[in-house]
Amino acid sequence: AESRVVNFGPGPSALPLPVLEEAAKGLINFQGTGIGIAEISHRSKEFSAYLDGVESQIREQLGVPPTHSILFLQGGGTGQFSAVVLNMLARHRLLHPELEDSERVMDYVLTGSWSKAAAQEAGRLAGGARVNIAVDARTLSSGGKSFDRIPPHEAYAFSKDPALIYYCENETVSGVQFSNDESAPESFPFHLLPQDTLLPLVGDYSSSFMSRPIPRLADHAIIYAGAQKNLGPAGLTIAIVRQDCIVDVDAAAKLGAVPVPTTLAYKTFADQKSMPNTPPVFALYVTGLVLKRNSELGGVAYYEALNRRKQEKVYKVLREGEAKGLLKGHVRQGSGSWMNIVFVVLGDGAEALFLAGAEERGLKGLKGHRSVGGIRISLYNAVTEEETDRVVEYIREFINQPP
Ligand code: PMP
C-alpha cells in the first residue's frame, strides 16, 4: 500500500484502498465459502444474494423508482451505444408500426467525442431511420471545431416523436459536463423535450455515475454507465431502464425492426435477473464493496459535497494560472466537468516539465487524451480531498515559479 501513487487516471481509475484490501481477501475466500469470488458459481446462493444486494444499494443510493429496472450488462459504454439504438428502435416500431422507417428519428446531443461516437454508431445501426443532431456544440466554439461548452438552451432542436433522445452527461475526454443545477444555463434543457410521460431520454453517465445525484432520473428511459470510473473494475455495465423500454425485440423484428442480439436485448437481462449468461462476477463483487462503503460514508450526497469541493479547488488554481498567462482551460466557465478537468500548460516545453514534475511527486495519470492533448485531471470518487490538495499545491507551486 505504501508503494501506491496518486492516480488521477481517466478510467480505469483509482479505487478506494480499503475496498481493494477487502477484494484481495474475497479473491481467495468469498464470504467464508472457501471459494474465491472469481471461482464461485454465479448461480450459487451466496453470489445471487450478493447480486441482489448490489442492485438494492444502487436503487437506494440513487433513488431509482420502481418504474425502472437495474440491469447488469457487459460490453461497456460502447456496447450501450449499440444497445440503446436497437432496443429503442424496436420499441418505436411496436408503438408506431404504421410509420415508414424514414419517419423514425433519433435525436443526438453532441457535446464531446463520446456523444459523437454514440451518434456514429446510431448511424450504423439505424437501418432506414434517421439520426438528427439536435445540437452540435462544436459549431458554437470560436473555431467551429472544439467541444468546449454545454450549448445554451436556445441552440437545441429536438424532433417531435423521436425514438430516442441521447446525451452524454459528462464528456470524459473534452471535460464538459451538464450542470446539475437546473436553473443554470448549462443544465440539460428538460423543459424543451416533447411532453411525454414516457420520454425516450437516454443518458450516458459513464464517467459521472454515483458522483452526485442524477437530476430527473425518473424522467429517463435509460441511464447507463461502465463501472470503471467511480465504481469498480471494467467489465461491468450498469443500465437503469424504465420498464416500457424493456421490449420484446422479437415481436418488433416480426414487424420489420432489425433483429437484436440476445446479449444486447434489455429484456433478456430483465427476465433473468441479469444472469442470462455468466455475469462479470469479479467486477460485480468489487462494485458491491464500493457501494457498501459509499453507503457508510453517506451515499451520493456525501460524494456530491466532496466532489464539489475537489473541483472548486482545482478550477480555482486553474484560474490563477490563467490570470498569470501560464495555463489555459479547455472548457468555458460554467461548462467544466467536476470529474475531468482539461487544460493546457502554455509555453514551449512547459507541459512536459509540468508532467515530469508531477511524476516526481507521485502524481500520475495527468496526461490529456491524445485527441485533445494538454493535461487532464480526473477526480473520480476514490480520489481523496487530500490527494486533490496535493495536485493543487503542485500546480500552485508550478505557476508561482514557472520553468
Ligand atoms: N462514454 C463515456 C462518457 C466514456 O467516458 C467512455 C469510456 N471512457 C465510454 C462511453 C466508452 O466506455 P467503454 O470503454 O466502457 O466502452
Automatic annotation (TrEMBL):
GO cellular component: cytoplasm
Known cofactor(s): pyridoxal 5'-phosphate
Family of the protein in this entry: Belongs to the class-V pyridoxal-phosphate-dependent aminotransferase family. SerC subfamily.
Gene Ontology BP term (one): L-serine biosynthetic process
Entry protein name: phosphoserine transaminase
SUPFAM superfamilies to which the protein is assigned, alphabetical: PLP-dependent transferases
InterPro entries, A to Z: Aminotrans_V_dom, Pser_aminoTfrase, PyrdxlP-dep_Trfase, PyrdxlP-dep_Trfase_major, PyrdxlP-dep_Trfase_small
Top EC group: transferase
Organism: Agrocybe pediades
Keywords for the protein's UniProt record, in alphabetical order: Amino-acid biosynthesis, Aminotransferase, Pyridoxal phosphate, Serine biosynthesis, Transferase
GO molecular function: O-phospho-L-serine:2-oxoglutarate aminotransferase activity; pyridoxal phosphate binding
Domain of life of the native organism: Eukaryota
Pathway(s) per entry: Amino-acid biosynthesis; L-serine biosynthesis; L-serine from 3-phospho-D-glycerate: step 2/3
Reaction equation(s) it catalyzes: O-phospho-L-serine + 2-oxoglutarate = 3-phosphooxypyruvate + L-glutamate
Domain Aminotransferase class V as annotated: residue spans: 6-391
Pfam family membership, one: Aminotran_5
HAMAP family the UniProt entry points to: SerC_aminotrans_5
EC number: 2.6.1.52
